[in-house]
Design goal:
The protein has 354 residues and is α+β, with helices and mostly antiparallel strands. It is built from 10 helices and 12 strands. Strands 4-3-2-6-5-1-11-12 form an 8-stranded mixed beta sheet. Strand 5 (215-220) and strand 6 form a beta hairpin. Helix 2 (58-80) packs antiparallel against helix 3 and helix 3 (85-98) runs antiparallel to helix 4 (142-152). The longest helix has 34 residues, at 2-35. The radius of gyration is 24 Å and the shape is globular.
Amino acid sequence: MQTTLLFAFAVCFAAIAVTSTAAQDGRNAQKTEQQEQRMKFAIAIHGGAGPSSKQASDEANRARIGSMRQALDIGKGILEKGGTSLDAVEAVVIFLEDDPKFNAGRGAVFTADGSHELDASIMDGRTGACGAVAGVRRVKNPIRLARLVMTDSPHVLLSGEGADHFGELKQVELVENSYFDTPETRAKWEERKKQKLDNPQSMIQVEDVGYFGTVGCVALDENGDLAAATSTGGMTAKQFGRVGDSPIIGAGTFADNETCAVSCTGKGEEFIRRVVAFDIVAQMRYANRTLQESVQHTLRETLKPNDGGIIAIDRLGHISMEYNTPGMARAAADSSGRYDVLWSDAKETEPAKK
């Protein structure tokens, strides 16, 4: 009798334990499901890593923040209406290419010979399709041509005269090279000429580069598709047809629906050597790191201090915007109501428009 009772109690306790474990498993599954819930949309933008806002005037800082806010509103508006991430990143970068406050499109820095050579790339995280241009001299919006390379050619990267000629064939807007001039970039070039720097290695020193100013955008749309785009005028007084990381898929730009979308800014040679954009994807894919862990590891362990910055969005809409320079103009928004326009260490936040 006693044995029977003990057996009954054991069965009862086991049943309770199983029920409790099942309930806990259910709660854990529900928690995991809630944690895995994807944002309807998310977007992040950078306007280049470089000096702190403290090194610029209040007027210049307000102007840059205003431009970043306008760019954010453009991308956010496209995504809110159900537009694609590709359309959003392209539209944002076009706006920034047209804004002379950035080193992309109009406002691009001068090369050593006093002209302008522009680079850009774009990537679709859903299909892996990508397109890029390097050293274009007459295309008003290089990011637009980069997308056409992706959609209307069998290639990934076109450069120099060939890229400009492809732009002619595709009837993109062409301009005189002088269109990209601004008084500010010309002054920087004139200053560099006075320094008479004959050693090309000096071109990659941080103190020689000045304000980086590359622009980029990453986005997640309501379909769960990621995209990334980057555009730049390169380095002041760059020589020998120098190409940085911005048009290099895997170095300055990458997008993969299973992990994240990335756009980089900074010292291009370092980002190329370390394949930074894809390295972040690889850390998430193979080391099971989160987006933020991957970005921070790259900036702290892979790159050196003052090398640049990174913006990225993962497949759930988590956003990372990190840099190891004194500052980086950046902005972000998502479907939860987030709306940030940030500049340098102070991390000033601009309220969303009512």
